[in-house]
Amino acid sequence: MKINYTFKNKKLQELALTQSGIDSQHNNERLEFIGDRVLGLSVATLLYNMYPNETEGELARRHALLVSTDTLAHVAADLNIIKHLKHGHLTGGKINHILANTVEAMLGAIFLDSDFETARQIIFDIWTDLAAAEIVAPKDAKTALQELVQKTNSGTLPEYIYHEPTGASHNPEFTVTVTALGKSADGVGPSKKAASLNAAENLLKILAI
Q: Fewest CB atoms within 10 Å of the CB: 13, 122, 135, 185?
């Protein structure tokens, strides 16, 4: 797979492929900010057209999956982005986040270099097959955990404890502990939402044993 686009402004392309770990001033973080919005709206439009009979909640769960770090890292791998990425030290736990952020930065750069319709069409080309892969709208881990707990006699909802973030202020790492059915698990992520989803997913794995 490759992005079917040729940049008019090569500096935008270069900036999109420059990670903050190698250049704290001239990097892809601002492009990532705008690319995240372009991707979000484009995927929402794609799902709205593909699944006309689904509820808002079902579309929201599909959307969350398709713009998740894991999906974006998968796209980055297909595009072989790491081969072109200018980066600092890639630690194991953050590789997927860095790759996902770079995909968003590339989409933001394409948007600024052209227009929304061009960026949207590129996103449609890449994400249509991904959006069609799930026949039934997926449940996020927090929803699945809550439904599992509510099926038990206790019916007590999962309890989430949010710890103080660690790391640099511009790149914090959040840790969340979730407890349910007498078991606990931790989750880590670049936001409280991501960390809580990871915690719920980890607890589901423990409860399934």
A: 135
Q: How many whole angstroms separate alpha carbon 66 and alpha carbon 115?
A: 22
Name the phi and psi angles at 178, rounded to 5. Answer: -115, 140
Contacts of 91 (CB under 8 A, 6+ apart): none
Rg (CA), the chain: 19
Assess whether 104 carries a catalytic annotation. yes
pTM, full prediction: 0.70
How do residues 74-90 score in pLDDT, each as one tens digit? 999 999 998 888 876 66
- The pLDDT mean for the chain works out to 88
Order of strands, sheet of 183-189, starting from the edge strand that comes earlier in the sequence:
159-162, 174-180, 183-189
Q: How far apart are CA 102 and CA 29, in angstroms?
A: 9
Amino acid 99 reads: L
Q: Is 159 a known active-site residue?
A: no
Question: What percentage of the chain exceeds 70 in pLDDT?
Answer: 94
> How open is the CA angle 78-79-83, to the nearest 5 degrees?
110
Q: Are 35 and 43 in contact (CB under 8 A)?
A: no
**What pLDDT band is residue 204 in, cutting at 50, 70 and 90?**
confident
Q: Of 32, 104, 113, 140, which residue is the catalytic one? A: 104
Given the residues 36, 54, 125, 201, select the one marked as catalytic: 36
Q: What are the pLDDT digits (tens) for 137-195?
A: 777 888 888 887 877 756 678 999 999 998 887 778 999 999 988 899 999 988 898 89
